[in-house]
């Protein structure tokens, strides 16, 4: 009986994760309100989820706002690029949809494919920004190449994201925990990919006191 009240048992550990996911999701939603901050918010969401929610390193709010502040400028620019590109593609997609000709079918197919590519790139974009220091143009290029190179994982992550989007759209209430839970599930695939791009240190090399949590 005493083991049940042990805070380290699976029940309390799981309950704590649920509370943390709820708290992290609320922070994310609040920082998304200005719309233009959705880029740094998504970057911080992934960083705090991968580091604190999944690996129990640091405090969730502290890690979130650390990543939010550190990647604010580049996150805003990247987020606005994605939003603008999505808006333009949506207009073109609707225009092509209304054309009653073979040209319309071809254009509709092209814009649909571009939508899918942009969506796949966006899945990688902000996690990559949270982990690697690179220029914005190279950030988009890297995200595109990763999404194509690891296509099976990309498809699985896309399914996860779309599932939670649909869940929130249909029931609304899940929005209180969906962002963090979605990021958590994505992180299991994304972190496995990231490890392939991080140089592995030899056992005798010193880490210079840096917490290399992402290598675990």
UniProtKB/TrEMBL annotation:
Q: Which UniProt keywords apply?
A: Membrane, Transmembrane, Transmembrane helix
Name any one Pfam family assigned in the record: DUF624
Membrane-crossing residues? Answer: 22-49, 70-91, 103-129, 150-170, 176-194
Mind telling me which InterPro entries this protein's record contains? DUF624
- What is the protein's given name? Uncharacterized membrane protein YesL
């Amino acid at each position: 009986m005493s083991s049940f009240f042990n805070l380290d048992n699976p029940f309390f550990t799981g309950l704590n994760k649920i509370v943390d996911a709820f708290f992290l999701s609320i922070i994310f939603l609040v920082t998304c309100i200005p719309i233009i901050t959705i880029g740094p918010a998504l970057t911080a969401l992934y960083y705090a989820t991968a580091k604190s929610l999944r690996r129990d390193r640091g405090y969730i709010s502290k890690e979130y706002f650390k990543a939010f502040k550190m990647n604010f400028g580049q996150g805003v620019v990247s987020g606005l690029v994605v939003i603008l590109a999505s808006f333009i593609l949506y207009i073109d997609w609707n225009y092509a949809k209304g054309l009653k000709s073979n040209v319309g079918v071809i254009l509709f197919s092209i814009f649909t494919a571009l939508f899918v590519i942009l969506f796949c790139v966006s899945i990688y974009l902000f996690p990559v920004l949270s982990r690697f220091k690179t220029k914005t143009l190279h950030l988009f290029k890297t995200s595109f190449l990763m999404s194509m190179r690891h296509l099976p994982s990309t498809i699985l992550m896309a399914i996860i994201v779309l599932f939670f989007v649909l869940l929130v759209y249909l029931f609304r209430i899940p929005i209180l925990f969906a962002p963090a839970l979605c990021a958590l599930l994505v992180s299991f695939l994304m972190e496995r990919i990231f490890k392939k791009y991080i140089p592995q240190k030899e056992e005798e090399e010193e880490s210079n006191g840096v917490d290399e949590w992402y290598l675990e």
